[in-house]
Amino acid sequence: MNKELLDITSSQKVNLYAQIFSIKKCVTNVATSVVLDRHFDYEMLKKAIVMAVNRCEAMRLRFVRKKGKIKQYFIEHDEPEIGIWDFYGMTEEKRDRIIFKDASKKHKLFGKRQFRIYIYRDIDGFEGIYMNVNHMIQDSSGIMIFFKDILDIYDALATGNDMPKPMSSYKSIIIKELQYENSKQQEKDYEFWKEYWEKGEPIFTGIDGKKRLLLEQKKKKNNNYRAASILSLLHPDTARWMQYADEDKTAKWMQFCIDNNISFQCLVLLAVRCHLSAANDREEDVTVNLTAARRATLTEKKCGGSRVHFFPFRTIFSEEKAAIDVLKNIKDEQAVCFRHCELNPLEIRNIRVPMYNITSSVAYEDISVTYQPLHIELNGTKARTRWHHNGASSNPMYLTIMNNEEKGLDFYYEYLKYRFDEQTVRRLALNIENTMDMVVDNKQLTIGEILDILQGES
Predict the structure, then answer these.
(1) Fewer Cβ close by (within 10 Å): the C or N end of the chain?
(2) What is the C-alpha separation between 25 and 105, in angstroms, rounded?
(3) CB 266 within 8 A of CB 334
(4) What are the tens digits of pLDDT across the range 225-236?
(5) Between 374 and 69, whose confidence is greater?
(6) Apex CA 161: angle with CA 155 and CA 164, to 5°?
(7) How many CB atoms neighbour CB 318 within 10 A?
(8) What is the rounded CA–CA span in Å between residue 21 and residue 454?
(9) 352 CB-near residues (< 8 Å, 6+ apart)
(10) Are 401 and 268 in contact (CB under 8 A)?
């Protein structure tokens, strides 16, 4: 039977290039687990997993090289092997070593299944599913949609209730994405980002201060150089540090956001940029990387797959501006950028290369930020979801914030070990938390007053 071969999409290309140019091919692995405080019938859960794989087109994607190009196609049916991991009573350290061994094992790209799934019993007896999947077929939103489908199918099998509604077609979304290329909308988006960069060159603001920018200026023999090298292809090894916000603190932050009609991500962005400003001689011009889930429609929300894009988000605020006004500006500017985030993220970055006479190996952003307000539950019981460390990254610092089962928040800081130490990460995390607390307590605080406090604490 002839397979229908499709080109890969822009979000898939970003992940493909990350894998090609990293010496650690596990860089595109996404290892996650979802567990609940209950016992599952393992045979029934296996059946639910296989059914979910065959209801989710993204999980049946395969890749092939054809005439020098990477193509993709869908297989009609899959019967994956489902292993069992029982960590009950084991130490955290031993469990994490076993998981890391799998999370850091690459997926062979061509003609092979792009995931591994285990039924998972955690050290405290919670049970559920662990999956290691290639980012080229699923992003975090897609993974959560897929996990939810498994649990809903299991519930239908166990109770005899109707099966959940099927997932929407990822193939149709891929075709739509490919049609976007060379379209009028793509031209509009390109012009938007061209004008975005024509406003003037940003400046690199490092998490640990100006030393990296100064080093770049010395190397270039140009004291006015404004970009910096942020990565080394030979040093992709990462570490992770986690911070937890409890239910009360989380509720206070969220209520503030509701009362002031802003998203929680806006509050986080304000806090991140305040740290970067304070660490870089109170620089007013700060740029970070933001992620866009690109799941606005119901079809996009329920199709799974790899949809996420990232884009540079620049803010310039004077120290006299009140925090609440900055938050409103961030909200408005972010909304405009989101309307044009369909453009290939690599193209957004490459527009500025000739404009500022820089190379694609330097950047102005030292951190990527994403908030994933996703949670899963079964019969009213909230699941515990975890993102497991794979040991490699194509970003110097990746801050991912996720809701947890205790109505709090988990802050995952994944960072390149050759760039940062844990003390630097802890300082960043403390400044982010303290800034959000300060703003929630007094939204009329000026940026200058916040920076005074942060610099006084460092």
Answers:
(1) N
(2) 8
(3) yes
(4) 999 998 777 788
(5) 69
(6) 70
(7) 10
(8) 37
(9) 197, 201, 358
(10) yes
Among candidate residues 208, 231, 278, the one with its CA nearest the CA of residue 426: 208
SS3 string of 215-274? Answer: HHHHHHCCCCCCCEECCCCCCCEEEEEEEEECHHHHHHHHHHHHHCCCCHHHHHHHHHHH
What is the rounded average pLDDT of the residues 271-292? Answer: 97
- What residues form DSSP beta bridges with 132? 31, 116
Look at residue 210 and give its three-state secondary structure.
Answer: coil
Neighbours of 357 (CB within 10 A): 10
DSSP per residue over 63-83, as a string?
A: EEEETTEEEEEE-S-----EE
Distances (CA, A) of 252 to 10, 261, 454: 38, 14, 21
Q: In angstroms, what CA-CA distances link 387 with 78, 290, 319, 372?
A: 25, 19, 37, 12
Strand order in the sheet with 384-388: 82-86, 115-121, 127-134, 29-36, 384-388
Cα distance between residue 231 and residue 278, in whole Å? 23
SS3 label, residue 40: coil
Give 159's contacts (C-beta < 8 A, 6+ positions apart).
none
Residue of 346, 340, 345 lying closest to 187 (CA atoms): 340
> How do residues 151-180 score in pLDDT, each as one tens digit?
999 999 999 999 999 999 999 999 999 999
User: What separation in angstroms does the CA of 235 have from each of 31, 228, 355, 377, 396?
Assistant: 21, 16, 29, 39, 10
Here the tokens at position 127 are 């049970």
Q: Residues 168, 170, 176, 180: is their CA dihedral positive or negative?
A: positive
Could you tell me which residues are beta bridge partners of residue 386? 33
What residues contact residue 239 under an 8 Å CB cut-off, 6+ apart? 414, 415, 417, 422
Q: CA-based angle 180:185:191, to the nearest 5?
A: 125
pLDDT band for 382, please (50, 70, 90 cuts).
Answer: confident
CA 120 to chain centre: 24
Q: Which of 113, 138, 119, 122 is nearest to 12 (CA)?
A: 138
**What local confidence, expressed as pLDDT, does residue 430 receive?**
97
Q: Which residues of 131-141 are buried (b: 16+ CB within 10 A; e: fewer)?
A: bbbbbbbbbbb
What DSSP string describes 74-121? E-S-----EEEEE-TT--HHHHHHHHHHHHTSPPP-BTS--EEEEEEE
Over residues 79-112, the pLDDT tens digits come to 999 999 999 999 999 999 999 999 999 999 999 9
Yes or no: say if 76 and 4 are a contact pair by the CB < 8 Å rule: no
| The pLDDT of residue 47 is above 90 | yes
Res 378: pLDDT: 82
